Amino acid sequence: MDHKIEVVKKSVWGPILIILLIILIILAAGAFLVVRLNLVQQLTRAESMISSLSVTTTRVKEGVFDLTLSNIVGTVRSGRSVDLNWQTSGTVGEVLVKVGDQVKKDDVLAYLDESTLDLDVITAQMDILDAEDDYNKMMNNSEKIASTLSTMVQAEKTLEDAQKKLDSMDMTRVTDVNLLIAKDSAALAEVKYERALIKFEELRYAPLDSEPRIKALGDVGGYRTVRDNALAEYNWYLGEIDQLELQTREAAVELAKAELEEAQYQYQKALDGPTEAEKMQAQAKIDAYQTKIDSSKIIAPFGGTVTQIEAKAGDVISYDSNVSARNIFALRIDDISTFYMDFTVSELYVNSIKEGMPVKVSFAAIPNKVYNGTVYKVSDVGTQSGWNITFDVTIAIDNADSDIKSGMTADLTLEIARVEDAKYVPQTSIIVKDGKYAVNLKKINGEMEEVPVEIGLISGTNVQIVSDKISGGDEIELDVNKTNSSSDFNPFGMFGAMMGGGAPGGGRQPNSRPGGNSRR
């Protein structure tokens, strides 16, 4: 049986069609992606335009930009003031002034009746006279010079005599003549002594206050001393030196030398006059007594005006220095030749305030009148309260008149910085990144461009910017931090100290932390 084999031929178009189909699919997908990407870009641009239309902007301002402390409230005080209190007990004798009187330093304004004073005050009144007399004698020391000179001369004579007595025991001076004279002197002295004894024995039982008996007794002592000295000299010539006598005479010489040195020192000291320490000690003694005496008086410590009086004649003052509430008020004095006011400023502004800067002062109690003042003092030490550090500033009112009273409340205005041609913007338009600053500048096509800027003066809610790419009138984004409130955000709270700003106008000062502000 014959089998017939049939060959079937395959078409070549099948694979080609598959490949073409795949290529078509890839092209279609690519076209879809291109169209999609184009649509996304168009949508992004549209969203950007819509977003730019919703951005709040403001214009860069240009012109005079100043930093002024204003609406600062302070209380007027006098240059000096003092409450004068009684310092001892007694009854008020008289008050010599009235409120409004001008007084000078050391004027007595009131005093206690002397008959009612404490004993220590009365004693001080007497002791001060002796202290002043001692002081005057010390200062006028001619009497002391004469006295010390006399003592020195006497000391020289004493040394001379002691040296002669010691020298008389020198064995090298022995001669036969001297020995014979010494022997005769000793014998004669012995005879005179014995005669004196005999004469005294005759009067021994006479009355004790009898003049002859007293004289006879004195002669016995005198002749005995002469005999002993003559005998000692004779024995010395014989070579029998009394060692005790020798030591005694040597000691007498040394003592006389020491006394002469002391006398010479005192004399020279008298010639030099009292030392400063001695003067101060003597004056301190007088001052102590005077202070005790003055405790019975009210004395002005400086020139000023009497502004308050509580003391009146007849008041009984019971002073006790041992109790804490011992001050008994008498009257008050104020120096109103110059008035002062004190206020505080933030650490950010203290270096911008200098002594001598002009200040305007106005009073609600004195309408339609502005006074001139100057910065009198700026503290070097700050006070910390929470995050804030403030410094004390004192001003002096230069043209004060009789309308100003101590204790009045006043408003101060102080311009501490000024830039004539400044560009400035709201603080909330500043972008702060890593300590650097920028603003979003709106371009002609409506898009925002971030432009770096430098920061200058800060005043209130505005800040000076420095950039060549920005001009006055340019439009910038206002609320870059999206706070929706320019008064509740301070981008410079943590960096203001680096930027050298000052106190803003209206009395506001930037805090040291964002998110708040404070008013003095």
Structure report:
This protein has helices at residues 13-54, 119-139, 142-167, 176-203, 211-237, 243-272, 276-294, 496-499, and strands at 57-59, 61-86, 90-95, 102-103, 108-112, 297-299, 304-309, 316-317, 328-346, 358-363, 366-378, 383-385, 388-397, 409-426, 431-433, 436-442, 448-459, 462-466, 475-477, 508-510, 517-519. The strands form 4 sheets. Strands 2-9-13-11-10-14 form a 6-stranded antiparallel β-barrel. It has a 4-stranded antiparallel sheet with strand order 6-5-3-8, with no helix packed on it. A two-stranded antiparallel ribbon has the order 1-19. Helix 2 (119-139) packs antiparallel against helix 7 and helix 4 packs antiparallel against helix 5. It has 8 helices and 21 strands. The longest helix is centred in the first third of the chain and has 42 residues, at 13-54. It has 520 residues and is an alpha+beta fold. Among the domains are: 9-54; 56-79 and 343-520, Elongation Factor Tu (Ef-tu), domain 3 (Beta Barrel), CATH 2.40.30. Helix content is 38%, strand content 30%. The model is unreliable at 1-5, 485-489 and 493-520 (pLDDT under 50). The chain is elongated and about 190 Å long.
Task: Name the CATH architecture of the domain at 56-79 and 343-520.
Answer: Beta Barrel
Could you name the CATH class of the domain at 56-79 and 343-520?
A: Mainly Beta
CATH topology of the domain at 56-79 and 343-520: Elongation Factor Tu (Ef-tu), domain 3
How many E-type strands?
Answer: 21
SSE order, one letter for each helix or strand: HEEEEEHHHHHHEEEEEEEEEEEEEEHEE
Amino- and carboxy-terminal Cα gap: 126 Å
Which percent range fits the helix content?
Answer: 25-40%
What is the 3D shape? elongated
In terms of quaternary structure, the protein is single chain
The CATH superfamily of the domain at 56-79 and 343-520 bears the name: Efflux pump adaptor protein, beta barrel domain
Strand line-up across the major sheet: 2-9-13-11-10-14
